[in-house]
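## retry 2 of 3
previous attempt timed out at serialization; input unchanged, resubmitting
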Amino acid sequence: MMNAPLAQTVAQFTKRYKMGNPFDLDNEKAYLAWRDSKLENYPEHIEDIIVEINNPAALTTAEYKALHTRAVKTNMAVYAGKTGKDPDKNIPAKLGKQFGLTELDDNMGADDGVTSLKVVSGQWRGGYIPYTNKPIHWHTDGYYNTLDHQIRALFLHCVSPAAAGGENALLDHEIAYIHLRDLNPDYIEALMAADVMTIPANIENGNEIRPVCTGPVFSVMSDGNLHMRYTARTRSIEWKDDAVTQAAVKALCEFLDSESPFIYRATLQSGQGLISNNVLHDRSGFEEDEGHKRLLYRLRYYQRINET
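## retry succeeded, writing output
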């Protein structure tokens, strides 16, 4: 007899995917049906997922539908709003609520769940790359979170860009899954193992700020959606030491470093922002001057963008 959570998951899969669970490696028919649907009319350029809007804090019905349609298809969308350099943190917070997002991750650098990403020196933040002008390698946000507090949606809102640089590369994690499964299903099996990726504890001055976290790269959430936790960092990560895992990680790194048309690139400008189901992303290094100090707001949610 299936336990209740598993039975609920199967029921949700039956409703969402008529042919069953597409992420079950033994159900090739369901996978191919889902894959074909995913890739059909997939946007080819970053411009295809950008929506011109007025005020992110108060979307019109048409603006919401345009953003939501793109987010459902690609797990992300970019908005170009007219709030300019308005520093009000309520702008992205109100946007999130319109997409059913209320459970913010109040992480160490956040202020009521909204993190100001800017260059900081002389504080503890200066020891963390997001608060510097250095490049950040490919990752999903909160990859080090405990498994019961995974980040499922990520929003970024730009108040002011840098003088130069600060470009984000973006990749739908479902596309990464498809790429690896088509290469070798064994890669997916390895990356779904419960012990494949370990993030060591974060210890400062003898105090444990964050415990060790071990878990999968790819997993299927209770609502039937695919989730991914990943970082390309090598210093703060331990991969399972077996041949298939090492080959899978290598294949993923090669894909992320490629010129795949599925990888979008954009430098957010004032009033622009990203809504996403925590897709893979990176950030190039940047330069500032007195008139161009980079400031982005980051919001991490324990929920996905709503389905309707």
